[in-house]
Amino acid sequence: MDCFRSKSIHQIWGILLSLTAFLTIMGAASVYAQANQDTLRIAVSKLPTGVNDPSVGGIKQIYTYLAMYDTVIGVDDEGNLDPDAGLAYKWEASSDYKTFTVWIRDGVKFHNGDDVTAQDVKFSMDRYVFDKNSKGADKKAISAMLDRIEVEEPNKVVYHLKKPSVIFWVYLTPFRGSCYVVPKSYTQKVGNEGVLRNPVGSGPYRFVKAVPASLFEYDAVQNHWRTGTPKFKKLRFERVSEEGTRLALLKAGDIDAVPITTSRVDEAKAAGFSIYGKKQALGIGVHFMRQWYEGSPLGDPRVREALTLAVKSADILKYIFKEQGVLTGNYPMGPMSAGYKEMPPVSYNPERARQLLSEVKADYPKWAADGLPIHIHAIMVFPESTDVAQALAGYWDAVGLKSVVHPMEGARYYPIWKGSKEPEGLPGVALYGYSQRWSMVIGANQNWTTYGRWRHAGDAALDKIVAKLDSAPTMDAWEKAVGDIQQYVYDKFITLPIANVDEVWAVNPKVVSDWNQGTIQWDINAEALFRSK
């Protein structure tokens, strides 16, 4: 009886194994069933609530803008200015950097049949900067430097600045959100509400429909001047917030490309999917908040140094991010940033951290009497935020601190960051996760300065270095100022950089055979997947 029972169990187990193998094969077949499909389907964890109007939608939806709009100045996959990738086939700056001139190519049409002209280029920037309804992220920055725009010839547009700027051209490229060209006559005819319902561009895909925060869908344009006729008749971005669901849809053949966390890489590879991503795309680390508060331990460079030395960043990269990235001493710039000056990671030295903390106790008696508490605001700016916060707590507790972790969504923390609300516990630190971009310094200096919107430092000496950016007479001088900022932030332990980690995507190899995701922040370079020339 025992022998019979054992044999039956083995037979049943064999049947189950066979069934499992069959289902695995069928699952694999479903993955590749859509190899000749008409629609390129891309899942994203978050889809913007804004529609495809660049003056209203957020800058983080660049990947949707680039599908249906042309930019003034284009860039190639490596981030170099490219006269074949934008409406401008030529551009130049005056010797004093107070005027920028672009020449617009002929023969480009909007999706409604109107010709793209220099008047449309002028109108688009004017609308982005000066329209009271515009919500453009760069509206304030551009209005501070732009005096007026003139069309001097049918295809010649001249931007006149109030003061010299060696980097104004950045705002004409997809590195920022102000470069997309809309049709003047159509926009004036239908008004802002009409544009919200049916935006019109001149890009390789035309708008079909949008369900804000859920779905964006487009139809291909035949023989587009920039890309050729797209390889897929339709392009669709779908919001699928839960990672397990995204992978399940990919395995079922219902989606072609999905973002995943590093912990899922092995699983995705084992299922037969290819792995792509943007290298060093996200700079992660820690802001030391409210450094300017009188009596705050975080205002003391010795305390910031101790907190930095106590963290073994190499283990965070190894165990949490599975080596998908590189260690860094830079805040928060990576090699994609202009003026990047590589700073070596700070070496792990818990003994020195303990010594520094012992030295400062006498200067902060209340903090010492409370047990040296440190409050960690684990903002969900990247999926592994809570894991990183817990690791930090472990390292800091090991050198004598008393860590308290506060997990929270970004929306809850932004009032604290902007200074209109006090942190939940002081002294407090906050995780950061910055997508790398060419012009990282443009926004990040709002964190470095005493007058910055997102201020966390409080150093007048650093203000003077940042001021050199605006007064830089040449691009070389501008890049030197960026390097000087990096050096100062590094030497004074203004922040705690941990690593530049990769963005990771799993894709169906029968639909996507190669994917250079480019260097544009918040963009996935979907064009590399559908261009045909």
Structure explained in plain terms:
With 533 residues, this protein is of the alpha+beta class. The chain folds into two domains: 59-243 and 509-530, D-Maltodextrin-Binding Protein, domain 2 (3-Layer(aba) Sandwich); 282-501, Dipeptide-binding Protein, Domain 3 (Dipeptide-binding Protein, domain 3, Roll). Helices cover 35% and strands 20% of the residues. It has 17 helices and 19 strands. It has a six-stranded mixed β-sheet. The chain has a four-stranded mixed β-sheet with strand order 1-10-9-8, with helices on one face. A hairpin with a 5-residue loop joins β4 and β5 (99-104). α8 runs antiparallel to α10 (350-360) and α15 packs antiparallel against α16 (475-491). The N and C termini lie far apart (71 Å). Mean pLDDT is 88; it is low at 1-35.
Name of the CATH class of the largest domain:
Alpha Beta
Mean pLDDT: 88
Structural class per helix/strand content? alpha+beta
Helix content: 25-40%
Give the percentage of residues in beta strands. Answer: 15-25%
The dominant shape is globular
- Please give the count of helices: 17
The end-to-end span amounts to: 71 Å
> What kind of sheet is the major sheet?
6 strands, mixed
What's the quick description here?
The protein has helices at about 1-30, 60-70, 120-130, 140-145, 185-195, 245-250, 265-270, 300-310, 315-320, 350-360, 365-370, 385-400, 410-415, 440-450, 460-470, 475-490, 525-530, and strands spanning about 40-45, 75, 80, 90-95, 100-105, 145-155, 155-160, 205-210, 215-220, 235-240, 255-260, 275, 280-290, 325, 375-380, 400-410, 430-435, 495-500, 505. The relative contact order is 0.15.
